[in-house]
């Protein structure tokens, strides 16, 4: 497949050398994105506290979280189409407001109505799903191309820091307020995500603010986004590799790590240390990618993605706990060596008026298949044993990104950069 020429970038804002962290428009968007990420992380944790306090049963927790996932998957594709069809700022506003409205409904239903909680969780998931591609596309409008990798790294740093400090902060708050109040706090975070970001910059040619003579159906426009994705071989290869690592590697370690921590090491400390090491590693990876500009950016990103294979590999044999913790730290570094350039390349290479739809396809496939992997891993471990399953998943983590790196245009995540004087 021939390489597709890169879309023309907006000329409305000349590339600058000033740090993106000194740009007020980005800082507002960054704060809103961080608030939405923290709210997304906090909901299952707070609902877990409700189980510990016997305000919600384990079966009810599973149903509520499944409803949230279903809402996310149902809305993410629609949100991508709407964000390309209308103002991306408006899509962020209304989707985040929907998620904010779900929080008090969850609080009211807690301990009273599982049906109300399930419906509210689906609404929260729909709001989350609809705003994700809009946030991605809005970043491309607010930040000039030369600073987008730094912007994506800054957003990742904020979200990872929240997930690292969040459990301790939430547990501390739980000592003073009840679960219903914590749920209302999640609603306030969604309000911040809805109201704080400003409008994007002047639209590029073909951007959603440009007049359109005729609108196709939502389905037709989403299919048009799929066609745009197919024009970029590196994107399809990266999406396949990311999906394999999430559905197999991440799912396997999510199921196996608690079991191995309990049965092999007889302590919960290994579970806590390994998951913390993964987040700390991801923070380090985000810091690294803020300034890292390798010549073969795609190959480096795929190598980082493949590094997740060290996590299931470390769980296969009775090694010292430090080996497991170190493997998770390496996996965390690697995942951000992939994520940040991946988001940046998507914002750079995809046609501006189709960016939200392509981003929604990314979230839909990678997130959509993750529950399938989680559902299959446990029966596979029961049937074949934990070591063979972990070995197969580790092999997939190493081999699938390596194969994806061989696809045309994968080396640079698009066309190779033009060298001065060439």
What does this structure look like?
By secondary structure, the chain is mainly alpha-helical. 73% of the residues lie in helices and 0% in strands. It is built from 14 helices and no strands. The two termini are 24 Å apart.
End-to-end separation in angstroms reads: 24 Å
Order of helices and strands: HHHHHHHHHHHHHH
How can the largest sheet be summarized?
A: none
List the total number of helices. Answer: 14
Secondary structure tally: strands: 0
Low-pLDDT segments, ≥5 res:
1-16, 202-213
Roughly what percent helix? over 70%
Query: How much β-strand is present in the residues?
Result: under 5%
- Radius of gyration, whole Å: 21 Å
Topology record:
Blueprint: H1 24-52, H2 58-85, H3 88-109, H4 114-142, H5 148-174, H6 179-195, H7 218-230, H8 233-263, H9 269-289, H10 297-306, H11 310-314, H12 321-349, H13 355-384, H14 386-404
Keyword list:
globular
Compact description:
The protein has helices at 24-52, 58-85, 88-109, 114-142, 148-174, 179-195, 218-230, 233-263, 269-289, 297-306, 310-314, 321-349, 355-384, 386-404. By secondary structure, it is mainly alpha-helical. Helix 3 runs antiparallel to helix 4 and helix 13 packs antiparallel against helix 14 (386-404).
């Amino acid at each position: 497949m021939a390489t597709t020429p890169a879309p023309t970038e907006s000329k409305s804002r000349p590339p600058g050398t000033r740090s993106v962290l000194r740009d007020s428009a980005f800082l507002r968007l960054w704060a809103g994105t961080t608030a939405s990420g923290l709210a997304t992380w906090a909901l299952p944790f707070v609902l877990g506290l409700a189980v510990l306090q016997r305000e919600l049963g384990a079966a009810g927790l599973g149903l509520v979280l499944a409803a949230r996932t279903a809402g996310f998957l149902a809305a993410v594709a629609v949100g991508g189409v709407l964000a390309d069809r209308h103002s991306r700022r408006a899509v962020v506003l209304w989707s985040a407001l929907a998620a904010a409205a779900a929080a008090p409904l969850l609080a009211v239903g807690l301990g009273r109505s599982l049906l109300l909680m399930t419906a509210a969780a689906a609404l929260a998931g729909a709001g989350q799903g609809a705003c994700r591609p809009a946030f991605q596309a809005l970043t491309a409008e607010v930040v000039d191309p030369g600073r987008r990798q730094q912007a994506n790294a800054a957003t990742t740093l904020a979200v990872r820091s929240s997930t690292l400090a969040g459990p301790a902060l939430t547990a501390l708050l739980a000592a003073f307020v009840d679960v219903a109040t914590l749920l209302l706090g999640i609603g306030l975070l969604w309000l911040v995500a809805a109201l704080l970001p400003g409008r994007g910059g002047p639209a590029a040619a073909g951007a959603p603010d440009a007049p359109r003579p005729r609108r196709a159906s939502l389905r037709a426009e989403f299919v048009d986004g799929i066609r745009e994705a197919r024009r970029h071989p590196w994107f399809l290869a990266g999406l396949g590799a990311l999906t394999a690592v999430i559905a197999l590697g991440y799912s396997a370690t999510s199921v196996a790590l608690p079991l191995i921590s309990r049965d092999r090491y007889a302590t919960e400390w290994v579970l806590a240390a390994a998951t913390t090491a993964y987040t700390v590693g991801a923070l380090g990876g985000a810091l690294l990618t803020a300034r890292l500009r390798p010549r073969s950016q795609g190959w480096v990103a795929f190598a980082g993605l493949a590094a997740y294979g060290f996590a299931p590999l470390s769980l296969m044999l009775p090694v010292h706990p430090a080996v497991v913790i170190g493997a998770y730290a390496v996996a965390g570094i690697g995942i951000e060596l992939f994520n940040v350039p991946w988001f940046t390349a998507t914002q750079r290479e995809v046609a501006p008026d189709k960016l939200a739809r392509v981003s929604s396809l990314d979230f839909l496939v990678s997130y959509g298949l993750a529950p399938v992997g989680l559902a299959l891993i446990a029966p596979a471990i029961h049937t074949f044993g934990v070591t063979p399953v972990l070995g197969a998943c580790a092999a997939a983590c190493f081999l699938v990104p390596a194969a994806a790196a061989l696809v045309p245009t994968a080396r640079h995540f698009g066309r190779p950069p033009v060298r001065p004087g060439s």
